[in-house]
Design a protein that fits this description.
Blueprint: H1 3-17, H2 41-50, H3 74-77, H4 90-103, E1 107-114, E2 120-126, H5 129-133, H6 135-146, H7 155-164, E3 168-172, H8 182-195, H9 199-207, E4 209-213, H10 218-233, H11 263-275, E5 279-285, E6 290-300, H12 306-325, E7 331-339, H13 347-350, E8 355-361, E9 370-373, H14 376-379, E10 392-395, H15 397-417, H16 419-434, E11 444-447, H17 454-466, E12 471-474, E13 478-481, H18 494-501, E14 509-512, E15 517-520, H19 526-533, H20 555-558, E16 564-566, E17 576-579, E18 587-589, E19 594-597, H21 604-611, E20 616-620, E21 624-626, E22 629-631, E23 636-639, H22 643-653, E24 656-660, E25 668-670, E26 676-680, H23 686-697, E27 703-706, H24 707-711, H25 716-719, E28 722-725, H26 734-739, H27 775-787, E29 791-795, H28 797-804, E30 811-814, E31 824-830, E32 844-849, E33 854-857, H29 913-916, E34 930-935, E35 942-944, E36 957-964, E37 967-972, H30 986-994
Parallel strand pairs: 3-4, 3-5, 5-8, 6-7, 18-24, 26-27, 26-28, 28-29, 29-37
Antiparallel strand pairs: 1-2, 2-4, 6-8, 9-10, 11-15, 11-16, 12-15, 12-17, 13-14, 19-23, 19-24, 20-23, 20-25, 21-22, 30-33, 31-32, 31-34, 31-35, 34-36, 36-37
Helix pairs in contact: 4-8, 7-16, 8-15, 9-15, 12-15
This protein binds zinc ion.
């Protein structure tokens, strides 16, 4: 304890000699009310009434201090926080926070941006009047600790600030809309910190700026309140599940801290960075009764500073200890949550030198008081859960609010007591981030200027920018030394060792051209950049057998662009300049009325196609030369376009375009702005939400309809060229997609705007009853659509569905048995580069795979690969002669055995004469499936993350174009569109769309 603190304690102690003995023997301030301050008796009585057991509250929240001028949450709610039957809309919560702001100088409200649907997000600062007056001054101090370069990395200077600055503790509520309790808990918490004069709370008020975003997912919150109102109005009925939360995604809104595609992530990130907060504490509700999952379980994210892991232990252990002393059961800090993925909202702090925290408290998914029965593993006493939750209790929203507020208050108090340590750590972590090139490395990441996919490089750099990572650009070329790879010990045979002698030596240096982008690791936010750009390895031997989320995410791989990890610190001495505006040059060069645009699988090409809807665009099927330049297969030729318009569009989109007066005749086909229908199931809208988000960002128009609407559309082919059916997600099995939710019993579950549900529909879909699925009529409509020349694109579970309804000639789909590929980056290989689906792609394509289905090919309709009878006969049988000689049979002339065709797993099996004989099921070569990409060999499958038992899927098709009638079903086992992180594979989808009526281009039929 330093002297300043000692003096403070002494003064407090003297004061309390004359009042109540509120100091513990250990010198810490006792939690509990100030007897001199009046209590709001009626509010306190109601809190007590709604708390279902005396041990579900604490001395911190079992009373509410009264105030003459500051309104309690009752002013807006009409009852106390956590009262049964009451869930406020986001605007009600904001209204209350602004009432507080008006009533007391200890509260200030800031608008921090809007959601996709235009709802406001706020941050509420609560602290002493004095602290709030000096907010800007204090923020400038914290900014210096956040960026030690401004202090010349001088620890003594930092210590001066550490001794004075007021830290910021940022709390975020209800990002998950079905987890409903946080807003009322945070309304009351704001009141308590502003009003309560107990020494315990006063220390928090005077010592810390508590910053609160009470509603993170404002769109989803208002929908959830609507649903709850509908439930109250129809108490005997089932009420609909929350099908849509935000405009695009549901639960995954807490997986967006890598890609930063959602407004809520961006707004919280900007707020965290602007305030230089030390903590980001996110509130969730799914585990009884309070699981502080920040300590959680391994493996921890490999890029966090170990100082942070210690801070998690400090705060988490103390949190459990304090609440245990209050006698509150079910508070623990270890459990089923690894901290590997940096996609969670709280990771904004974890990889920005702050402290990430997350609570799971116990929620009822609304404000009903319910009897709750737990699973044995939930109430079992374990080494980390010494006072476990009870097997069965009545549980109320008030109970939940008591736990949330108590946990936050003990955390804030402990944080304040140790704030000098935490502020010093905040500085140290930032300093260590800057020292990274000289400690663990690397020195930098380089995105070379000669990138063939500059628009994708730009998109990746834009993510870095949203992440507040500094980007520089080399003004001259730079050569760096490459790390020397250590020779692995192997059991290679002598021949192989000899062969290795002839191999070319590995290069020892690499030169990057001037203009290359450099992401320096000597910056305060180096850790987030490193975490996103590096590779991940999750060992199959890891004791953690159930990864909580994705295990791999390497952005360079998933964006399909070059990213070099440079360990040679010389890179930092290169002349470079900071870049704040990112642009890729495009536009037209040359004279003439025919324009050529190279195709490197950049999604911007599809944006151009749709923007210039009426221009004649052709995709060339062969490489050609013009004007002394070579153009590859897939190059786009534009004819009859307005030059100025094309120039403006290609400029804006970053697509360099060459003009010619004439182009050698080359085989081509039209590239079309196909009419797209994006089909969703009411079973789940999240995974397809990432697809809507991608199309919207690319400004590609599409219709959006449910499987129910499909069933009622007489002629789909007349209206659409391509139907996209992205993954349904959990529950997306064949029978669920067709049957939907049970309709033989229960009541309709409407998703419609009504007086009770004014916010439900938003900009998405509506239905009188979400229960019916695609139905058999719908299956028939889809079948007819493909049969009449439409293209159906399916992914993962919907590929399984398409195979299941029998419209994928020669392709079957099954689940792997033991394989574990949990959200990993895997290698795939180009099989048929002549397919328009593959235009712009090279030999190796990295893709996102999450235990994708295993596709198998057959050349006989309705059967799988030929079954072998008897043992495998790879070599000659036992008999006469040497190994390479033919055997003989005594007494007759020998006969050479027919050649056994050697087939690869990704090839259509050859048909033998025996199989062909009178077999109407043999698929003619022109109708056999065409494999575009296959999974890499087992040893090359893993790029990032976890691949266990990959042999089951290795070499199997990853993207296959199946024929049915006059149309195509393009099946994906990988997921090409995921969380805004996989832009490198978007063009596999967009190529399918734009070439929908020429997918057979370049097709070679193997007549065997
Ligand atoms: Zn949650």
């Amino acid at each position: 304890m330093n002297r300043r603190l000692g003096l403070k304690f002494a003064m407090v102690a003297i004061f309390f000699v004359f009042s109540a003995p509120l100091l513990k023997a250990d010198g810490e301030t006792q939690p509990g009310r100030d007897p001199k301050q009046a209590v709001d008796e009626s509010y306190t009585a109601k809190m007590k009434k709604y708390t279902t057991e005396p041990f579900f509250t604490s001395p911190l929240v079992n009373y509410l201090p009264a105030s003459k001028n500051v309104p309690t949450p009752e002013a807006v709610l009409g009852d106390v926080a956590g009262a049964p039957g009451i869930l406020p809309y986001s605007t009600d919560v904001y209204k209350y926070m602004r009432m507080l702001e008006k009533a007391t100088p200890r509260v200030k409200v800031f608008s921090i941006g809007t959601t996709e649907e235009g709802r406001e997000m706020i941050a509420v600062a609560i602290s002493s009047e004095e602290n709030l007056k000096k907010l800007e001054e204090n923020r400038a101090k914290l900014a210096k600790l956040a960026d030690p370069r401004t202090l010349q990395m001088n620890d003594a200077e930092a210590d001066k600030i550490v001794a004075q600055a007021v830290p910021v503790y940022y709390i975020t509520g209800t990002i998950h809309s079905t987890e409903t309790g946080a807003p009322t808990a945070l309304m009351e918490l704001a009141y308590r910190i502003a009003v309560d004069d107990s020494p315990y709370v006063k220390e928090i008020r005077d010592g810390v700026v508590t910053l609160i975003t009470p509603v993170v997912e404002a769109d989803g919150r208002d929908r959830m309140v609507d649903l709850y109102k509908w439930h109250l109005a129809h108490p005997k009925d089932y009420y609909p599940p929350l099908v849509y939360w935000g405009k695009y995604v549901a639960h995954d809104n807490n997986r967006d801290a890598m890609g930063v595609t959602l407004k809520l992530t961006e707004n919280v990130m900007n707020t965290y960075v602007h305030w230089n907060a030390q903590v980001l504490h996110d509130l969730h509700e799914s585990v009884p009764y309070l699981y502080d999952n920040t300590i959680g379980d391994g493996p921890y994210n490999a890029w966090i500073d170990p100082i942070l892991a210690d801070e998690w232990q400090m705060i988490g252990a103390r949190n459990v200890a304090d609440m245990t002393k209050f006698g509150m059961p079910g508070v623990f800090a270890h459990g089923d949550f690894d901290t590997w993925s940096p996609g969670y909202l709280m990771f904004i702090a974890a990889l920005r030198n702050g402290i990430s925290r997350l609570y799971e408290t116990f929620g009822n998914g609304g404000a009903d008081t319910l009897e709750r029965t737990l699973e044995p593993e939930e109430y079992a006493r374990t080494w980390y859960k010494q006072n476990p939750p009870l097997p069965r209790v009545m549980w109320s929203q008030r109970d939940n609010n008591n736990y949330e507020e108590t946990g936050l208050l003990v955390s804030l108090h402990y944080f304040n007591e140790n704030k000098r340590t935490f502020l010093k750590n905040f500085y140290l972590k930032a300093k260590r981030s800057i020292e990274k090139p000289n400690t663990e490395g690397p020195a930098a990441y380089v995105l070379p200027a000669d990138e063939v996919r500059p628009t994708l490089q730009l998109e990746l750099l834009r993510v870095m920018q949203k992440q507040h990572v500094e980007i520089s650009r080399a003004t001259s070329s730079v050569t760096v030394a490459l790390p020397v790879k250590k020779e692995k010990k192997t059991n290679k045979t002598p021949e192989k060792k000899e062969a290795k002698k002839d191999e070319k030596p590995e290069p020892t240096s690499k030169t990057f051209p001037a203009g290359s982008y450099v992401i320096r690791m000597d910056q305060p936010y180096s850790r987030i950049a490193d975490a996103l750009l590096d590779h991940q390895y999750w060992s199959p031997e890891d004791p953690q057998k159930t990864p909580y989320d994705d295990t791999g995410w390497t952005f360079g791989e998933l964006y399909g662009v070059q990213v070099a990890r440079v360990t040679d610190a010389k890179i930092l001495q290169t002349a470079m300049e900071r870049v704040t505006e990112l642009r890729v040059p495009g536009g037209i060069k040359g004279e003439g009325s025919i324009f050529a645009i190279e195709n490197h699988g950049e999604p911007a090409l599809a944006s151009l196609r749709y923007r210039l809807k009426d221009a004649d665009m052709q995709a060339v099927e062969e490489a050609f030369e013009a004007g002394g330049r070579k153009f590859a297969q897939g190059t786009i030729l534009v004819k009859g376009a307005d030059r100025a318009q094309l120039d403006a569009a290609t400029n804006e989109l970053g697509l360099p375009t060459v003009a010619f007066s004439a182009v050698p005749s080359v085989k081509s086909h039209p590239l079309r702005a196909a009419r797209i229908l994006l089909m969703h199931s009411w079973l789940g809208t999240q995974t397809e939400g990432w697809w809507r988000l991608a199309l919207d960002k690319l400004q590609i128009p599409y219709d959006y309809a449910s499987t129910q609407t499909i069933a009622g559309t007489p002629d789909l082919r007349e209206k659409y060229d391509v139907i996209l059916f992205p993954p349904v997600g959990w529950g997306g099995s064949l029978d669920n997609i067709i049957n939907g939710l049970p309709t033989d019993w229960g009541n309709p579950l409407p998703w419609q705007n009504t007086p009770e549900t004014p916010n439900l529909v938003g900009k998405n879909d509506a239905t009188a009853d979400i229960r019916p699925g695609l139905g058999w009529d719908g299956v028939a409509k889809l079948q007819k659509f493909v049969n009449h020349g439409g293209v159906l694109l399916t992914v993962m579970d919907t590929s399984q569905f398409a195979a299941g309804i029998g419209i994928t000639t020669g392709v079957s789909s099954s689940h792997a048995e033991k394989m574990k590929i949990i959200g990993s980056v895997v290698g795939t290989r180009l099989v048929d580069g002549a397919s328009p689906i593959a235009y712009g792609y090279s030999e190796k394509v990295a893709a996102y795979c999450d235990n994708g289905p295993v596709f198998s090919l057959s050349s006989i309709a309705g059967s799988r690969r030929r079954r072998k009878l008897g043992p495998e006969m790879g070599e000659r049988p036992t008999g006469r002669g040497t190994k390479d000689d033919p055997d003989f049979a005594v007494g007759r002339l020998g006969m050479a055995a027919p050649e056994e065709p050697e087939m690869e797993i990704w090839e259509n099996p050859s048909i033998t004469d025996e199989q062909r004989y009178n077999n109407s099921r043999v698929i003619p070569p022109a109708m056999r499936a065409r494999v575009v990409l296959r999974y890499a060999d087992a040893k090359d499958l893993l790029i990032s993350g976890l691949v266990e038992g990959g042999g089951e899927i290795a070499q199997h098709p990853a993207v296959v174009d199946a024929l049915y009638g006059k149309g195509h079903v393009v099946m994906f086992s990988i997921n090409p569109v995921w969380r805004g992180e996989t832009q490198g594979t978007y063009s596999l989808v967009l190529n399918t769309v734009m070439n929908f009526d020429s997918l057979n281009a370049g097709r070679k039929n193997d007549e065997k």
